[in-house]
């Protein structure tokens, strides 16, 4: 001790250790995929007057008549009935930690069956803190390390890339065309891995209006992928986030509903259909897991629920009740809960592509884009490199924000693409935003 106790204490508290981002922290701390969302939020915060095509966030008009108390009340009634509880006992479920697998599993399993004929048992379902946790837990459970690789459709949602990075899982890209994943390439990757005594353990794919590509997998490709997965012992991690945006009558069955071999783990979110602030998602994992020690059989969902006790313990029962009540108010259906929203998103997609046709096509013909039938996103191809520096220029000089696509790609191939999200904006903003975008493109894309 060199001074008085208080002086020493003050000195020791004011000295913070210096850590090197690369030498002292896990590799994911310096990973561009992991940091991309924070960086985008930071840029958006710096230019509050800019029109933002960046966030894939739901339109805020849907929160206006959302009565959270009523949703909770409806869900409590259902929980009491299902469990034979009186009202007070049902209410207590919301005050306590509760089971890690969730309390609205029955409502969710029935909704998935009603909407998609998924045929899931409530015991196959784990209610998670968003789809992000469902991805994280599933990856953690499936990947032992030592040569196990995750294949992802290139480009892919940054959440799966970041989760894999946090877990030190090797990731390999698989290309996609207009009808979905390149099955021949996936087969080649499986063959190569086997020859090197490794294995492609799982494939992450979003068959319906993927983020960020907007691609929808054709029925034939879905069949081919399930056959390949069965043959190769590959687990398919199916992200269903944007399936609800399909035109009524134009729905294709999710992989999980076509699966007869137990190859698919279905991952879902209520962020887009209900509200992101609830942070509720799910995994459906009915696969049987045999234990060598006990000789018993459990479901993969049981393993995920157990692991969850070491991550988030359980998903807020209050948030679950909001989502459960919202589904019940729409006949216990995800599709019905999302119908009005899906209409608005399809309208916005149409307005966005029409505005691009009107304002960009003739003026900057070097720039091209896709025309998805659903989802939240349109992808633009430019003749120049697209990076964070260009985004900052676009925000500062032209008042318009978007997302560079490079963070969604594993192999750098998207470095001339940007993503436009239309979900959050009103028609006038879409129009004005595209006018600004056209001015920006006219300067940079010549
Ligand atoms: C394809 C996809 N999956 C999952 C998520 C995240 O879901 P959650 O907010 O429930 O974690 C998103 C969010 O944008 C997404 O686009």
Structural write-up:
- Helix 9 (219-232) links the parallel strand 7 and strand 8.
- The protein has 2 domains: 31-56 and 339-444, Alpha-Beta Complex (Aspartate Aminotransferase, domain 1), CATH 3.90.1150.10; 68-337, Type I PLP-dependent aspartate aminotransferase-like (Major domain) (Aspartate Aminotransferase, domain 2), CATH 3.40.640.
- The model has no long low-confidence stretch (mean pLDDT 94).
- The chain is of the alpha/beta class.
- The termini are far apart.
- It has 16 helices and 17 strands.
- The structure holds pyridoxal-5'-phosphate.
- Pyridoxal-5'-phosphate (PLP) binds at residues 56, 130-132, 157, 159, 206, 211, 239, 241, 269, 271, 276, 281.
